[in-house]
């Protein structure tokens, strides 16, 4: 008997219609279902309610219903228990939650039949040391961002790799990304795409005040240190997967390295990383261009009509 955790985004699955459908289908397959308390109450299934630790610990795998943001939050928790995740996309891009809603039952049937593979994804660990040498730790699947606040000026960041000084970066911030996260914020900031089967990290400055600052790719065995310069009251924020925020102060040091934890992705298709990249990113752009061309043609036809 499979023990399956259902983790829906209640804002994307309106009325939990998709969650209820999957829940009913899985129970007919004699699966044991675990839900967090809020969706359990909304579905009037308080008998299935678990706290967060129980959900990840007591499930053979987690089904995440939402977008990539929902998936990232689940990944950080599931990694602590080495619990695999299957993502069902209810968002827009769905690069991580790659199973589309219309294919959800087919994908689940494959998992129940054992027709799937587990893909391990590298994660990062960030340790923050303040002036009192107190330490706080965070893990992430996508990226660590160190950025200025919305009304702050350019911030000064000193970068070290394995205690070797690299350079000063006066910039809006910096992104340290895993291969999985390289197609996210890193890509938008002009950084390179890394194959997720490789174990590397990429350091990408955000709007650097420099003519030569470029991304740097390092190995998973390297240790990156970022020292916050004297920023004279500027707001500096550490972000974890773009979801968790922590305020930094001048002279704080952030150490980033490969985490001992990994995210376990359930794969039910034979699509390669490049197939998904082409479909999700290149395809999205093509559709947008086709839509814009269609709108422009409509305008031309309208002018000819009048």
Automatic annotation (TrEMBL):
Involved in the regulation of the intracellular balance of NAD and NADP, and is a key enzyme in the biosynthesis of NADP. Catalyzes specifically the phosphorylation on 2'-hydroxyl of the adenosine moiety of NAD to yield NADP. It catalyses: NAD(+) + ATP = ADP + NADP(+) + H(+). Keywords: ATP-binding, Cytoplasm, Kinase, NAD, NADP, Nucleotide-binding, Transferase. GO terms for molecular function: ATP binding; metal ion binding; NAD binding; NAD+ kinase activity. Belongs to the NAD kinase family. Pfam families: NAD_kinase (PF01513), NAD_kinase_C (PF20143). Its EC number is 2.7.1.23. It is an enzyme of class 2 (transferase). Its main location: cytoplasm. It is found in: Cytoplasm. The active site is at 68 (proton acceptor). NAD(+) binds at residues 68-69, 142-143, 153, 172, 183-188, 243. One of its GO terms (cellular component) is cytoplasm. This is NAD kinase. Its cofactor is a divalent metal cation. It comes from the Bacteria. GO terms for biological process: NAD+ metabolic process; NADP+ biosynthetic process. SUPFAM superfamilies: NAD kinase/diacylglycerol kinase-like (SSF111331). HAMAP family: NAD_kinase.
